[in-house]
Backbone:
């Protein structure tokens, strides 16, 4: 729905998404409402929201394609790892890998970029995008190592 909402509601929706980004997992774990489906779908839903915001702003000229590509470093990296695993025949039921600190920091920087774009803080956008990309690379490397270790242990 983000692309179809009036711009006056964008910040409210972003703040609600940010709040749920950090509260949903906490509430699920605290109340023991976790499920395998939730573990797999929650990060996908979060990434689809960020994607819809970024693509809307690319279309509107508020974010460049290069900024978006850098902002999605972790997500494109993890997608690349998954594609390589599928090509190499390592297909098995997906196991959830708990979010690690570099990934959470990446998400934080992604939301800071989104808020900076919405608030029109132009001087902050590039440094925040670059920080997101750096932590995204670290998170991708960490996930790659965790998956590699998991594959070695299972064989």
Residues:
């Amino acid at each position: 729905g983000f692309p179809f909402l009036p711009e006056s509601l964008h910040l409210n929706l972003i703040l609600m998404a940010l709040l749920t980004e950090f509260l949903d997992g906490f509430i699920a774990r605290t109340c023991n409402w976790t499920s395998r489906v939730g573990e797999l779908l929650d990060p996908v839903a979060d990434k689809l929201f960020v994607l819809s915001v970024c693509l809307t702003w690319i279309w509107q000229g508020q974010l460049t394609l290069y900024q978006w590509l850098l902002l999605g470093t972790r997500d494109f990296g993890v997608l690349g790892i998954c594609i390589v695993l599928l090509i190499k025949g390592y297909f098995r039921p997906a196991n959830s890998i708990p979010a690690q600190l570099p990934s959470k920091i990446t998400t934080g920087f992604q939301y800071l970029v989104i808020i900076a774009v919405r608030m029109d803080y132009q001087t902050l956008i590039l440094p925040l995008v670059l920080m997101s990309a750096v932590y995204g690379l670290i998170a991708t490397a960490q996930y790659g190592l965790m998956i590699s270790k998991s594959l070695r242990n299972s064989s």
